[in-house]
Protein backbone atom coordinates (compact mmCIF):
# COMPACT_ATOMS: atom_id res chain seq x y z
CA UNK A 1 0.00 0.00 0.00
CA UNK A 2 1.24 3.45 -0.90
CA UNK A 3 2.37 5.96 1.70
CA UNK A 4 -0.28 8.54 2.61
CA UNK A 5 0.92 12.13 2.95
CA UNK A 6 -0.80 13.73 5.92
CA UNK A 7 -0.34 17.26 7.30
CA UNK A 8 3.36 17.31 8.25
CA UNK A 9 3.97 13.56 8.44
CA UNK A 10 3.49 10.26 6.60
CA UNK A 11 1.25 7.28 7.25
CA UNK A 12 3.18 4.15 6.20
CA UNK A 13 2.02 0.56 6.01
CA UNK A 14 3.12 -2.96 6.90
CA UNK A 15 6.68 -4.06 6.06
CA UNK A 16 7.52 -0.89 4.13
CA UNK A 17 6.54 1.04 7.26
CA UNK A 18 9.33 -0.55 9.31
CA UNK A 19 11.84 0.28 6.58
CA UNK A 20 10.78 3.92 6.73
CA UNK A 21 10.91 3.90 10.54
CA UNK A 22 14.36 2.32 10.70
CA UNK A 23 15.68 4.86 8.20
CA UNK A 24 14.17 7.78 10.14
CA UNK A 25 15.72 6.95 13.53
CA UNK A 26 19.43 7.47 12.66
CA UNK A 27 18.54 10.47 10.54
CA UNK A 28 16.95 12.21 13.53
CA UNK A 29 19.82 11.27 15.91
CA UNK A 30 17.61 10.71 18.93
CA UNK A 31 19.33 10.56 22.33
CA UNK A 32 17.03 7.84 23.68
CA UNK A 33 13.87 6.01 22.57
CA UNK A 34 10.95 5.46 24.95
CA UNK A 35 8.31 2.94 23.90
CA UNK A 36 4.92 3.41 25.56
CA UNK A 37 2.48 0.50 25.73
CA UNK A 38 -0.35 -0.64 27.95
CA UNK A 39 -0.28 -4.01 29.70
CA UNK A 40 -2.11 -5.81 26.88
CA UNK A 41 -0.15 -4.40 23.94
CA UNK A 42 3.05 -4.93 25.92
CA UNK A 43 2.27 -8.64 26.00
CA UNK A 44 0.77 -9.22 22.55
CA UNK A 45 2.09 -6.50 20.22
CA UNK A 46 5.40 -5.26 21.60
CA UNK A 47 7.33 -8.47 20.81
CA UNK A 48 6.31 -8.18 17.14
CA UNK A 49 7.26 -4.49 17.04
CA UNK A 50 10.66 -5.01 18.70
CA UNK A 51 11.51 -7.76 16.19
CA UNK A 52 11.14 -5.21 13.39
CA UNK A 53 12.88 -2.29 15.13
CA UNK A 54 16.52 -1.82 14.11
CA UNK A 55 18.40 0.86 16.05
CA UNK A 56 21.52 1.32 18.13
CA UNK A 57 19.87 4.03 20.24
CA UNK A 58 19.12 3.08 23.84
CA UNK A 59 15.52 1.91 24.37
CA UNK A 60 13.37 2.11 27.50
CA UNK A 61 9.88 0.58 27.72
CA UNK A 62 7.17 2.31 29.77
CA UNK A 63 4.01 0.38 30.58
CA UNK A 64 0.69 1.48 32.09
CA UNK A 65 -2.59 -0.22 32.91
CA UNK A 66 -4.97 -1.03 30.06
CA UNK A 67 -8.30 0.74 29.63
CA UNK A 68 -10.12 4.04 29.18
CA UNK A 69 -10.21 4.40 32.99
CA UNK A 70 -6.45 5.09 32.91
CA UNK A 71 -6.59 7.74 30.17
CA UNK A 72 -6.23 10.53 32.71
CA UNK A 73 -3.87 13.11 34.17
CA UNK A 74 -2.72 10.74 36.94
CA UNK A 75 -1.31 8.34 34.33
CA UNK A 76 0.35 11.26 32.55
CA UNK A 77 2.04 12.40 35.75
CA UNK A 78 3.37 8.89 36.35
CA UNK A 79 4.80 8.73 32.83
CA UNK A 80 6.30 12.25 33.04
CA UNK A 81 8.00 11.21 36.28
CA UNK A 82 9.37 8.03 34.71
CA UNK A 83 10.68 9.98 31.71
CA UNK A 84 12.41 12.38 34.09
CA UNK A 85 13.90 9.56 36.20
CA UNK A 86 15.20 7.81 33.06
CA UNK A 87 16.90 10.94 31.78
CA UNK A 88 14.66 11.88 28.87
CA UNK A 89 15.67 15.13 27.19
CA UNK A 90 14.45 17.31 24.32
CA UNK A 91 16.11 14.97 21.79
CA UNK A 92 14.29 11.89 23.09
CA UNK A 93 11.63 10.07 21.06
CA UNK A 94 8.44 8.42 22.29
CA UNK A 95 6.95 5.58 20.24
CA UNK A 96 3.35 4.82 21.21
CA UNK A 97 2.46 1.19 20.48
CA UNK A 98 -1.18 0.39 21.16
CA UNK A 99 -4.80 1.34 20.63
CA UNK A 100 -6.42 4.75 20.79
CA UNK A 101 -5.90 5.18 24.54
CA UNK A 102 -2.14 4.63 24.13
CA UNK A 103 -1.74 6.88 21.08
CA UNK A 104 -4.02 9.64 22.45
CA UNK A 105 -2.35 9.68 25.86
CA UNK A 106 1.17 9.06 24.55
CA UNK A 107 0.90 11.89 22.05
CA UNK A 108 -0.30 14.22 24.80
CA UNK A 109 2.49 13.17 27.18
CA UNK A 110 5.16 13.65 24.49
CA UNK A 111 3.73 16.96 23.28
CA UNK A 112 3.83 18.46 26.77
CA UNK A 113 7.03 16.95 28.22
CA UNK A 114 9.78 19.64 28.19
CA UNK A 115 7.44 21.64 25.92
CA UNK A 116 7.36 18.82 23.41
CA UNK A 117 9.43 15.85 22.25
CA UNK A 118 9.00 13.90 19.01
CA UNK A 119 6.62 10.95 18.96
CA UNK A 120 5.62 8.19 16.55
CA UNK A 121 2.35 6.28 16.65
CA UNK A 122 2.03 2.56 15.93
CA UNK A 123 -1.72 1.85 16.22
CA UNK A 124 -2.48 -1.80 16.96
CA UNK A 125 -6.30 -1.88 16.96
CA UNK A 126 -8.61 -1.41 13.99
CA UNK A 127 -10.18 1.61 15.66
CA UNK A 128 -6.86 3.36 16.22
CA UNK A 129 -5.67 2.51 12.69
CA UNK A 130 -8.63 4.20 10.98
CA UNK A 131 -9.28 6.96 13.53
CA UNK A 132 -6.38 7.93 15.80
CA UNK A 133 -3.85 7.55 12.96
CA UNK A 134 -4.83 10.83 11.27
CA UNK A 135 -5.49 14.32 12.55
CA UNK A 136 -3.01 14.96 15.33
CA UNK A 137 -5.56 14.93 18.16
CA UNK A 138 -3.90 13.98 21.45
CA UNK A 139 -5.58 14.06 24.81
CA UNK A 140 -6.99 12.55 27.96
CA UNK A 141 -10.30 12.32 29.77
CA UNK A 142 -11.37 14.55 32.66
CA UNK A 143 -13.11 12.18 35.03
CA UNK A 144 -15.67 10.41 32.87
CA UNK A 145 -15.75 13.22 30.27
CA UNK A 146 -14.11 12.05 27.05
CA UNK A 147 -11.09 13.89 25.62
CA UNK A 148 -11.71 17.11 27.55
CA UNK A 149 -7.99 17.91 27.88
CA UNK A 150 -5.72 17.83 24.86
CA UNK A 151 -3.95 19.48 21.96
CA UNK A 152 -3.55 19.07 18.21
CA UNK A 153 0.05 18.11 17.42
CA UNK A 154 1.22 15.75 14.71
CA UNK A 155 3.60 12.78 15.10
CA UNK A 156 6.78 12.29 13.11
CA UNK A 157 5.30 9.16 11.57
CA UNK A 158 2.37 6.77 11.80
CA UNK A 159 3.05 3.10 11.10
CA UNK A 160 0.04 0.85 10.40
CA UNK A 161 0.79 -2.89 10.39
CA UNK A 162 -2.38 -4.95 9.94
CA UNK A 163 -0.63 -8.03 11.37
CA UNK A 164 -1.43 -6.60 14.81
CA UNK A 165 -5.12 -7.21 14.12
CA UNK A 166 -4.48 -10.94 14.59
CA UNK A 167 -4.02 -10.21 18.31
CA UNK A 168 -7.47 -8.61 18.70
CA UNK A 169 -10.59 -10.23 20.15
CA UNK A 170 -13.62 -10.07 17.84
CA UNK A 171 -15.40 -7.36 19.83
CA UNK A 172 -12.36 -5.04 19.51
CA UNK A 173 -12.18 -5.70 15.77
CA UNK A 174 -15.88 -4.95 15.44
CA UNK A 175 -15.47 -1.74 17.44
CA UNK A 176 -13.17 -0.34 14.78
CA UNK A 177 -15.75 -0.90 12.08
CA UNK A 178 -17.89 1.90 13.55
CA UNK A 179 -15.45 4.60 12.43
CA UNK A 180 -15.12 2.99 9.00
CA UNK A 181 -18.90 2.96 8.58
CA UNK A 182 -18.92 6.60 9.65
CA UNK A 183 -16.36 7.60 7.03
CA UNK A 184 -18.58 6.19 4.30
CA UNK A 185 -21.73 7.80 5.69
CA UNK A 186 -20.25 11.29 5.95
CA UNK A 187 -18.07 11.35 2.83
CA UNK A 188 -18.34 8.45 0.39
CA UNK A 189 -21.57 6.56 -0.27
CA UNK A 190 -19.76 3.98 -2.43
CA UNK A 191 -17.45 3.18 0.50
CA UNK A 192 -20.47 2.76 2.80
CA UNK A 193 -22.10 0.26 0.43
CA UNK A 194 -19.03 -1.99 0.55
CA UNK A 195 -20.07 -2.91 4.09
CA UNK A 196 -23.51 -4.14 2.98
CA UNK A 197 -22.47 -7.78 3.34
CA UNK A 198 -19.55 -8.24 5.71
CA UNK A 199 -19.74 -12.03 5.32
CA UNK A 200 -18.15 -11.74 1.88
CA UNK A 201 -15.12 -9.77 3.10
CA UNK A 202 -11.74 -11.43 3.66
CA UNK A 203 -8.51 -10.09 5.21
CA UNK A 204 -7.29 -8.72 1.88
CA UNK A 205 -10.52 -6.71 1.61
CA UNK A 206 -10.00 -5.44 5.15
CA UNK A 207 -6.51 -4.17 4.27
CA UNK A 208 -7.95 -2.19 1.38
CA UNK A 209 -10.88 -0.89 3.46
CA UNK A 210 -8.50 0.29 6.19
CA UNK A 211 -6.37 2.09 3.64
CA UNK A 212 -9.41 3.74 2.03
CA UNK A 213 -10.74 4.77 5.43
CA UNK A 214 -7.45 6.50 6.31
CA UNK A 215 -7.51 8.23 2.90
CA UNK A 216 -11.04 9.56 3.55
CA UNK A 217 -10.20 10.92 7.01
CA UNK A 218 -6.94 12.40 5.72
CA UNK A 219 -8.77 14.25 2.92
CA UNK A 220 -11.13 15.81 5.46
CA UNK A 221 -8.39 16.77 7.94
CA UNK A 222 -6.18 18.30 5.24
CA UNK A 223 -9.01 20.65 4.33
CA UNK A 224 -9.55 21.70 7.95
CA UNK A 225 -6.71 20.79 10.36
CA UNK A 226 -8.06 22.70 13.38
CA UNK A 227 -11.75 21.74 13.07
CA UNK A 228 -13.27 25.07 12.10
CA UNK A 229 -15.39 23.63 9.27
CA UNK A 230 -15.60 20.35 7.35
CA UNK A 231 -13.59 18.41 9.96
CA UNK A 232 -16.61 18.73 12.26
CA UNK A 233 -18.24 16.12 9.99
CA UNK A 234 -16.06 13.52 11.72
CA UNK A 235 -18.11 14.15 14.87
CA UNK A 236 -21.17 12.46 13.35
CA UNK A 237 -22.42 9.90 15.86
CA UNK A 238 -20.04 11.19 18.52
CA UNK A 239 -22.19 13.86 20.20
CA UNK A 240 -24.62 11.30 21.57
CA UNK A 241 -22.08 8.46 21.29
CA UNK A 242 -19.58 10.09 23.64
CA UNK A 243 -22.32 10.94 26.14
CA UNK A 244 -23.48 7.31 26.09
CA UNK A 245 -19.90 6.05 26.43
CA UNK A 246 -19.21 8.40 29.37
CA UNK A 247 -22.46 7.45 31.14
CA UNK A 248 -21.80 3.72 30.86
CA UNK A 249 -18.18 4.26 31.99
CA UNK A 250 -19.15 6.00 35.23
CA UNK A 251 -22.19 3.85 36.07
CA UNK A 252 -21.34 0.78 38.16
CA UNK A 253 -24.59 -0.93 37.13
CA UNK A 254 -23.76 -0.71 33.42
CA UNK A 255 -21.35 -2.74 31.33
CA UNK A 256 -18.53 -0.49 30.06
CA UNK A 257 -18.95 0.02 26.32
CA UNK A 258 -16.22 -0.07 23.72
CA UNK A 259 -15.88 3.22 21.85
CA UNK A 260 -17.20 1.75 18.61
CA UNK A 261 -20.25 0.26 20.33
CA UNK A 262 -21.24 3.65 21.73
CA UNK A 263 -20.57 5.43 18.42
CA UNK A 264 -22.64 2.87 16.52
CA UNK A 265 -25.61 3.68 18.74
CA UNK A 266 -24.86 7.39 18.38
CA UNK A 267 -24.91 7.12 14.57
CA UNK A 268 -28.34 5.42 14.60
CA UNK A 269 -29.75 8.01 17.01
CA UNK A 270 -28.32 10.96 15.07
CA UNK A 271 -29.52 9.48 11.77
CA UNK A 272 -33.04 9.38 13.19
CA UNK A 273 -32.69 13.04 14.16
CA UNK A 274 -31.49 13.84 10.62
CA UNK A 275 -34.56 12.08 9.21
CA UNK A 276 -36.88 14.08 11.47
CA UNK A 277 -35.15 17.28 10.29
CA UNK A 278 -35.75 16.22 6.65
CA UNK A 279 -32.05 15.74 5.96
CA UNK A 280 -32.43 11.98 5.40
CA UNK A 281 -35.27 10.10 3.74
CA UNK A 282 -37.10 7.33 5.61
CA UNK A 283 -35.48 4.81 3.25
CA UNK A 284 -31.97 6.18 3.91
CA UNK A 285 -32.53 6.05 7.66
CA UNK A 286 -33.77 2.46 7.44
CA UNK A 287 -30.73 1.51 5.35
CA UNK A 288 -28.35 3.08 7.89
CA UNK A 289 -30.07 1.56 10.92
CA UNK A 290 -30.16 -1.89 9.32
CA UNK A 291 -26.53 -1.65 8.17
CA UNK A 292 -25.24 -0.71 11.61
CA UNK A 293 -27.42 -3.25 13.42
CA UNK A 294 -26.01 -5.97 11.14
CA UNK A 295 -22.64 -5.31 12.82
CA UNK A 296 -23.48 -4.13 16.34
CA UNK A 297 -25.88 -5.42 18.96
CA UNK A 298 -28.39 -2.94 20.34
CA UNK A 299 -27.56 -1.28 23.65
CA UNK A 300 -30.24 -1.60 26.34
CA UNK A 301 -31.38 1.82 27.55
CA UNK A 302 -33.74 2.23 30.49
CA UNK A 303 -35.93 5.30 30.92
CA UNK A 304 -33.84 6.50 33.85
CA UNK A 305 -30.69 6.51 31.67
CA UNK A 306 -31.84 9.29 29.35
CA UNK A 307 -31.72 12.30 31.72
CA UNK A 308 -28.07 11.75 32.80
CA UNK A 309 -27.05 11.09 29.17
CA UNK A 310 -28.66 14.38 28.11
CA UNK A 311 -26.93 16.14 31.00
CA UNK A 312 -23.55 14.92 29.75
CA UNK A 313 -24.20 16.62 26.39
CA UNK A 314 -23.61 19.96 28.13
CA UNK A 315 -19.91 19.08 28.44
CA UNK A 316 -19.45 18.07 24.79
CA UNK A 317 -16.35 19.90 23.54
CA UNK A 318 -18.05 20.79 20.24
CA UNK A 319 -20.51 23.06 22.04
CA UNK A 320 -20.36 26.79 21.28
CA UNK A 321 -21.91 29.61 23.32
CA UNK A 322 -23.71 27.04 25.48
CA UNK A 323 -25.43 25.45 22.48
CA UNK A 324 -25.05 21.75 21.67
CA UNK A 325 -23.79 21.35 18.10
CA UNK A 326 -24.47 18.23 16.03
CA UNK A 327 -22.92 17.10 12.76
CA UNK A 328 -25.81 15.34 11.00
CA UNK A 329 -26.05 13.49 7.72
CA UNK A 330 -27.49 15.40 4.76
CA UNK A 331 -28.16 12.31 2.69
CA UNK A 332 -25.67 9.41 2.70
CA UNK A 333 -22.18 10.70 1.89
CA UNK A 334 -22.78 14.33 2.95
CA UNK A 335 -23.15 16.25 6.20
CA UNK A 336 -24.93 19.27 7.64
CA UNK A 337 -22.77 20.97 10.29
CA UNK A 338 -23.60 23.03 13.40
CA UNK A 339 -27.11 21.60 13.77
CA UNK A 340 -29.05 22.35 16.94
CA UNK A 341 -31.39 19.68 18.33
CA UNK A 342 -33.89 20.00 21.17
CA UNK A 343 -34.26 17.44 23.94
CA UNK A 344 -37.68 16.34 22.74
CA UNK A 345 -36.22 15.19 19.42
CA UNK A 346 -33.34 13.42 21.19
CA UNK A 347 -35.86 11.58 23.39
CA UNK A 348 -37.80 10.59 20.26
CA UNK A 349 -34.58 9.19 18.79
CA UNK A 350 -34.02 7.02 21.87
CA UNK A 351 -37.63 5.78 21.74
CA UNK A 352 -37.18 4.77 18.10
CA UNK A 353 -33.83 3.10 18.89
CA UNK A 354 -35.42 1.04 21.68
CA UNK A 355 -38.30 -0.01 19.37
From TrEMBL:
GO BP terms: namely: aromatic amino acid family biosynthetic process; chorismate biosynthetic process
| EC number annotated for this UniProt entry | 4.2.3.4
The record's GO CC annotations read: cytoplasm
Q: Which residues cross the membrane?
A: none
Molecular function terms from GO: 3-dehydroquinate synthase activity; metal ion binding; nucleotide binding
Give the 3-dehydroquinate synthase C-terminal domain ranges: 176-319
Which cofactor does the UniProt annotation name?
Answer: NAD(+); Zn(2+); Co(2+)
What's in the keyword line of the UniProt record? Answer: Cobalt, Lyase, Metal-binding, NAD, Nucleotide-binding, Zinc
Q: Residue limits of the 3-dehydroquinate synthase N-terminal domain?
A: 62-174
Matching Pfam families, A to Z?
DHQ_synthase (PF01761), DHQS_C (PF24621)
Q: Which PANTHER family match?
A: 3-DEHYDROQUINATE SYNTHASE
Write out the function statement from the record.
Catalyzes the conversion of 3-deoxy-D-arabino-heptulosonate 7-phosphate (DAHP) to dehydroquinate (DHQ).
Protein name from the UniProt record:
3-dehydroquinate synthase
Q: What is the lineage of its organism?
A: Bacteria, Pseudomonadati, Bacteroidota, Flavobacteriia, Flavobacteriales
Amino acid sequence: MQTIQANGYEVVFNQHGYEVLNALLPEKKYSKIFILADTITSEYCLPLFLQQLATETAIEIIEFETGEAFKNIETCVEIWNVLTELGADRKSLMINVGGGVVTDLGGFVASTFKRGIDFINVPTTLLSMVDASVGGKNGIDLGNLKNQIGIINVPQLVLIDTDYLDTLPKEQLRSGLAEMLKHGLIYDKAYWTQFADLSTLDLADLDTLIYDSVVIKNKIVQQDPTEKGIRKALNFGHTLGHAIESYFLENENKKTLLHGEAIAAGMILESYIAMEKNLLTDAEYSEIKRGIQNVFEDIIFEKRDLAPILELLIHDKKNEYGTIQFALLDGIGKTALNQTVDNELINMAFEDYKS
